[in-house]
Amino acid sequence: MSVAAVKSRQVHPPGIGLGGLVGRVGPGTVGLVVGAILWELVGRAAGLSFFPPLSGVVERLAELTAEGKIVGNLVNSLTNLAIGFALSATVGIGLGMAMGAYRKAEMALDFYVYALLTAPTLVFAPLFFSVFGPANSRLSILGVIIMYTVFIIIVNTTSAIRNVPAPLVEMGRSYCASERQLFLRIILPAATPLIMAGLRLGMGRAVKGMINGEMFIAIVGLGQVVTAAGGRFDAEGVLAVLLVIITVAMVAVKLVQIVDRRLTGWLPSNARQRRRNA
Amino acid sequence: MIEIDRLSKTFPARADDPPVEALKDVSLEVRDGEFLTVLGPSGCGKTTLLRIIAGLETFEGGDVRVRGRSISSPGPDRAMVFQSFALLPWATVVANVAFGLELRGVPKSEREARAHELIELVGLTGFEKRLPGQLSGGMQQRVGLARALAVDPEILLMDEPFGALDEQTRRLLQEELLVIWEQSRKTVIFITHSMEEAVLLGDRVVLMSPRPGRIVDIVDVPLDRPRASAVDEMAGSAEFARITADLWRRLREMQLFRRSAREPRDPVGIGA
Questions:
Q1: Which residue of B has its CA nearest to A262?
Q2: DSSP reduced 3-state for B208
Q3: Among all residues of chain A, which has the CA nearest to that of B135?
Q4: Which of A159, A190, B15, B146 places its Cα 20 to 30 Å from the Cα of B234?
Q5: pLDDT by residue (tens digit) across B184-194?
Q6: What is the pTM of this model?
Q7: Chain B closest CA to A28's CA: distance in Å?
Q8: Which long-range contacts (CB under 8 A, 24 or more apart) does B70-76 make?
């Protein structure tokens, strides 16, 4: 394989105007474009059926879409994602707040939360499937999504509440705040940045849970399309769906980020920077 | 105004630490409209004393009365200024200053009008829409002071409010506090570990000693009021130097005594 040739080709074209390009369109876009070009070149040079170039994958994606395999399944998957994430956020924030506020709740539940956070979550898929049966496969998928998502939200919310600066709560008390005012005016806003960080991580995991669940249960959604393509050794098809899934994940995380920005715009920009780099 | 009667407070033992007797038999009367400073080494219980008066801390023995009524919780007659400023980082200067009034259910337009008055008083006009993170430490504590004054308390409780500020900012804020206090004449209890600050601001200086925290002496400060316009002459006067030197001599004895009490006479056991 002509690695040297590939290397020299990948270095030259962007090398000419890289500085100007970065200045105009931003390093993120440049990274994407370079990645796409690399994929295409390596795919063509390799000539292997299991590593098709990008153009082949995009072509296949267009075919799958035309066959009606993408849109309907995507809607199906997104519905699962939305319901699963909403339930996880509700339960996770609620339980996390209880565990952050009450030592006893934390002591009672801590073990389970960390055990299930670190457990290989996909083992729950067959469990759910045997409980709910093939007729209720959506419930099984929702169950898997929640198992993937809820614990990271609980852990973050617990530490969010625990990390509310004590002097702020003290200040509220000294100005005669009621318990309700303390919670709504001080604890909740002070905990929001960490809670949102948990939701962001949770969203990434929810997408993973959705696809893994669908692939395992293999009746519905994009997961089923991937499984079917894999069964046919259709690498272009697998990667085509993967592109869709990654796009979904990026958009979903971006949505959480937009909400985050609206709620925590008061964070100093250096704190935001630190959080993003972390 | 405030009567503190044989007050005792012990923090219970924790893990490896024995119980700490923070205050023992502390009795003190704070007069109406008085500026009282409380001075002592760290660990003498001065902040605990203030927190008890604020209603933020429980106590076992004795009684604290404000205008004859025993207190056990925070009340609208008292407002506190914190060493760490304790500003809401998500709220603008106006919202922070108005926060105490907001908690009391004062309508928005009314509390903001009041907040603007106090922002002007503490010299922060033009910074109303800023967030605390965009202000210097000195400006943040001005917000803290304005917030306390906004609820118009009878008693201002100040817990080392300038302790986290640099020397120059501290001096400026001391002067401004004098100006504001000499207009309003609220009762102030001001905790500090600085002899100069205690004498410069206070009508009387309460001197406390540690373990257990108790009052050693209450020193009258015979400097004329108003002091705000004459801070520099005053700080250079012989009277000022004499009082601060005397306070330092006694604080130093406390610290030295503490050290010799803690160290065993024969630390390495050579004599055994």
A1: B90
A2: strand
A3: A268
A4: B146
A5: 889 999 999 99
A6: 0.81
A7: 29
A8: B74/A173, B74/A174, B74/A175, B74/A176, B75/A176, B76/A176, B76/B104, B76/B151, B76/B153
